[in-house]
Specification:
Elements: H1 4-17, E1 21-28, E2 33-37, H2 43-63, E3 71-76, E4 79-86, E5 90-97, H3 102-130
Antiparallel strand pairs: 1-2, 1-5, 3-4, 4-5
Helix pairs in contact: 1-3
């Protein structure tokens, strides 16, 4: 497992770069909290909900042919919840005020997710080399054959639906 202190440092740097963040946490794909900086929010509950939303987002991306999951953004009345892929075994979830610069949130969240992913994946690779089981393991991917149906061409001609009667 990547050092909780290293991940927590990255969460704090993220919160310093985006002052409108109200919380940030990193969790394994199994729902366990790796590190958190979420004052006033129950981190275990947010991590569990993150993994549930992650499952739906992964299936949605796959079903629509969009590829592997990268991020999920939820906007509520009072702000945003953004979840980012963090390597193969973790996710980053950030909470932000409604007045946050959304572009900045997305940019910095992606960067922090990538950095946390590097930390977690490096630790998993080191554990694999030494023969110890990694603490965070990605769920097995199921592959299904995808087929695409051909689209029917659009027609630009319109027919006049009005009829006339002679009297």
């Amino acid at each position: 497992m990547a050092s909780e202190a290293e991940i927590l440092d990255e969460l704090r740097r993220l919160r310093a770069r985006v002052p409108q963040l109200t919380g940030a946490l990193a969790a394994g794909v199994d729902g366990l909290v790796l590190a958190q900086d979420t004052p006033g929010v129950e981190p275990e509950r947010v991590a569990a909900l993150t993994v549930t939303a992650l499952g739906v987002a992964v299936r949605m991306a796959d079903a629509t042919g969009q590829g592997d999951f990268r991020e999920l953004l939820v906007r509520g009345v009072y702000g945003y919840v953004a979840t980012y892929a963090a390597g193969s075994g973790a996710v980053l979830t950030v909470l932000a005020q409604d007045r946050v610069n959304l572009g900045r949130l997305l940019l910095e969240g992606r960067r922090a997710g990538a950095r946390i992913g590097e930390l977690v994946d490096a630790e998993a690779a080191a554990a694999e080399q030494t023969g110890t089981a990694p603490a965070v393991e990605a769920p097995p991917k199921t592959t299904t054959a995808r087929t695409r149906t051909a689209r029917t061409p659009r027609t630009t001609a319109t027919t006049n639906a009005r009829t006339t009667t002679e009297s």
